[in-house]
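re: ur question from yesterday

yeah so i grabbed the chain u mentioned. its 418 aa long if i counted rite. heres the sequnce exactly as i have it in my notes:
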Amino acid sequence: MQALVLLLWTGALLAHSSCQDSAGSPQEDAPAPDTTGVPVEEEDPFFKVPVNKLAAAISNFGYDLYRVRSGLSPAANVLLSPLSVATALSALSLGAEQRTESTIHRALYYDLISNPDIHGTYKELLAAVTAPEKNFKSASRIIFERKLRIKSSFVTPLEKSYGTRPRILTGNPRLDLQEVNNWVQAQMKGKIARSTQEIPSGVSILLLGVAHFKGQWVTKFDSRKTSLQDFHLDEERTVRVPMMSDPKAILRYGLDSDLNCKIAQLPLTGSMSIIFFLPLKVTQNLTMIEESLTSEFIHDIDRELKTIQAVLTIPKLKLSYEGEVTKSLQEMKLQSLFDSPDFSKITGKPIKLTQVEHRSGFEWNEDGAGTTPSPGLQPARLTFPLDYHLNQPFIFVLRDTDTGALLFIGKILDPRGI
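ran it thru and got these structure tokens back, copy pasting raw so excuse formatting
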């Protein structure tokens, strides 16, 4: 009955998948096939903007990476900023010959973009999403084995489009770790803890992607309403965590009947937003939700959610992650980069990808820009109270509204930490 009520009163019932209905048949408004029998899809004007189209491509890579990473650790939290990993791979492709370049470009969905200047557009995208008002920092680096002679024809475009220079290891593990830590600290303004893990021996190419985000809500939470409340890990186990509350929160909301989840979107300053996917039951597997995530699906959600007023509770979060995503990338049809790639545009010596590291930090608390909702947000009139309590496992997506870029994605099974 709830889905029916929501459909009647908020118009917020979402259709899963932009191309097919739940029965798998084409929707009535699907584009008609052309004479070749191939469906002709009218491209959304949003995705016709080169920066937005590129953002959609690498975001789809990000959703792929998240799915693999989540599948490798189904019982653990996942925190990823896929953009930093995508940036490192895209930068590395500058040094790849055609076969290897195509492998990277397919993983990043570049093969679906007719853009003669991918790397120039990437520079625009990075500038857009790391603007100071976004509160989002992202950086990537390519680290090479000691004594490697690198061609200037690779370094110059790398600096031009990605604003970074490659690093060549000294061979001294302690000094190399210190240098990498210093670089991370400088890029992240000290927001990410120094690593204590040594640079492994035998590195040929090491990619490093780092990111940090500290969100500021458009409407801040009253810290006096924050209290310890139950978070249901599953049907039997609960933990007490600090939960922020707003009895009259203005948010955008929808119910997806196919995915059996309630979706809410909260605005952040700097044209950013977080979209939450909350299963209807604490025992529900998150896999179906995860499988649905694409740039296009998230864009459709952004258009279809309705502004409402609700009783909202949300856990305070401060999460960090440091580790490898090497195995995840190997499972994403990128194994050849670790076996016998052709990076002859970088150096004359045969080199291959050895390791991909990711460090990230993510936090939100009560901080916000104002105490009252934006006057432009007029909630739909409801005849019943609506609650949205993030007090059980959920998925969140941090998205840049201007470009549609996926900046962070998380699976929160336990808000106390990764």
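noticed a couple things. The radius of gyration is 22 Å. also Residues 98 and 342 are 8 Å apart (CA to CA).
anyway ttyl
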